[in-house]
Write a structure and sequence with these properties.
The protein is mainly alpha-helical. It is built from eight helices and no strands. The longest helix has about 35 residues, at about 125-160. The radius of gyration is 21 Å and the shape is globular. The protein binds fe (ii) ion (FE2) (2 copies). One fe (ii) ion binds near residues 141, 145, 176, 180 and 228.
Amino acid sequence: MSTTITPPGIAPETTIGQLVAARPLLARLFDRLGLDYCCGGKQTLAAACAARGLDPATTLALLESATAALEAGPAEVDAAALGLAELADHIEATHHACLKDELPRLVEMADRVAAKHGWRDTRLPEVAAAMNTLAAEMLSHMRKEETVLFPLVRQIEAGAAGTFHCGGIANPIRQMEAEHEAAGQLTASLRELTDGFTPDPEACNTHRALLAGLAAFEADLRRHVHKENNILFPRALARAGGGG
Ligand SMILES: [Fe+2]
Ligand SMILES: [Fe+2]
């Protein structure tokens, strides 16, 4: 069962716990600032900033812009209008760069929530195990794209298509598509294990931040894989002169 929380205003006297309970994705910013929203969630923003030596006005401004960005949703480019190299660059600079920060954070939260609350919900250790596997697989997958496939795509666009056998790019593409499928299945199992990323009424702030982070991961994975499977890969194959 989900609980509806009216978002509190962002003010120095608002507690960190209230802010994250209402907008769990703000946990990313609190993690970056080293502000504890779980056990230290009862602290006001002003007190937490003072304890960490952070300037309250700057922290408030950061929170306001992070909230506005969350409400606006991710900025999306017209991937179909980009060239092959531009699209590979865009994927690396956005989806890959974000995931390199986000996956270790999700693993850390999943491990912490399983250790603390696994006695209450026996699916939490399964969530942590699936998250660890997913993160390891995604990090290895992106490394392969960045070191093998995307450099090939850039060479093809630069006019080196004649030097490739069609299998030269078709094989890594097939491998990447199979890995996308595996990541999609693991993400679906995380959705199932968490009742659609829905917190139960007793869920602590870290648990809520984890579920919000998983839901955001799932949405980002869809956009990321769409750009690769439906735009980048078929165009690179066509440019290389092979159908796969
Ligand atoms: Fe990718
Ligand atoms: Fe990929």
